[in-house]
Design goal:
about 325 residues, mainly alpha, two-stranded antiparallel ribbon
Length: about 325
């Protein structure tokens, strides 16, 4: 068995030889650049989620599932920020390698968030199909809550192997970069867990979120829908375009696990870069395709949203009342 455990600080297992060390200022600079980009992307995702929640012209059920999709992306961005901050700290200080349970926890949250993004997109696609077939019908809050709870519980369970050190080892490559590790572990169970996660947490939702919007478009074309046809067609196309973003997300989820077979410094760079880039498309597509969201985002950025307007109006009325009393 591998001598690497979640509670040990150091690993005695023989790691792959790395020609390019990560314990350098170059990697610290790279990590800092990725950190700045992640903070910017995380801010964009957060602002987009706020704009979606305020965009009342968009049906409530659509807003709920879009916010959930964006929230999953925000969780991934947050845990990636934590991973990069940890790496930068380890490079620039004399702090010893942390307990491996920290890396395992970070990878588990990352994996759960990544799967939740894919499952959320599949659920969003099904909601779009429901609207295309039956119109803007309301759904009871309890049903929505149950669906969202199922999505997140499934996402966490599909990554449960990360919490099992006998089938999923982790490491700090060169003592700084949190990364999966293939050492002396029970490899057969790991392949089963990883395969299950890829099939049910990756390929299945990706297939659903690709096929369902196409079905929506075909249904609209064949049934000569007139009521809200433009809106329904636009939502179906929007759902289909989101697939492109989540295909990158799928790569960002699977690439780190695949290249961990050959983990060295260069591949750490590749995995971290793919992961960061995978967060970009979703908020961009939401802003591009949903005009009400663009409008609300602009209002939020210019402090011109309804809440701020009410506050300004209230202050103006108080000021006017005070002036009248003085006079």
């Amino acid at each position: 068995m591998d001598n690497c455990t979640l509670v040990e600080t150091h690993c005695n297992a023989t790691a792959p030889h790395t020609e390019l060390s990560l314990k350098t200022s170059f990697f610290a600079g790279y990590a800092f650049c990725m950190l700045v980009l992640l903070i910017a992307v995380g801010g964009l995702v957060l602002l987009t989620a706020v704009a979606v929640s305020l965009a009342s012209p968009v049906p409530k059920i659509i807003r709920v599932f879009l916010v959930n999709l964006l929230a999953a992306g925000l969780i991934v961005a947050t845990i990636c920020i934590a991973i990069l901050v940890t790496a930068i700290t380890l490079v620039l200080s004399d702090i010893g390698e942390p307990a491996r349970i920290l890396c395992a926890l970070q990878l588990w949250v990352f994996g759960a968030g990544s799967v939740a993004r894919l499952l959320s997109l599949a659920a969003f696609s099904i909601v779009v199909l429901r609207i295309v077939r039956f119109g803007k019908m309301a759904m009871k809050g309890v049903y929505i809550a149950l669906i969202l709870a199922f999505l997140w519980i499934a996402a966490m369970l599909l990554n449960i192997q990360i919490a099992l050190p006998i089938v999923y080892a982790v490491q700090f490559v060169d003592g700084v970069a949190c990364f999966p590790h293939y050492g002396e572990i029970h490899k057969a169970p790991r392949y089963i867990f990883v395969g299950t996660s890829i099939v049910f947490g990756g390929l299945t939702p990706l297939t659903i979120s690709t096929v369902v919007p196409l079905v929506c478009l075909c249904y609209i074309k064949r049934h000569s829908i007139t009521e809200g046809a433009y809106y329904k067609r636009a939502m179906a196309k929007f759902a289909l375009f989101l697939v492109a973003g989540n295909l990158i997300n799928f790569l960002g989820q699977t690439v780190p696990g695949i290249i961990a077979f050959f983990a060295d410094a260069a591949r750490v760079y590749a995995a971290y870069t793919v992961t960061v880039v995978s967060l970009l498309p979703t908020p961009i597509f939401v802003i591009i395709f949903l005009k009400p969201v663009r409008k609300k985002l602009l209002e939020v950025l210019t402090f011109n949203c309804a809440f701020v307007k009410k506050r300004r109006l209230a202050r103006k009325m108080m000021s006017t009342a005070g002036t009248a009393t003085t006079a």
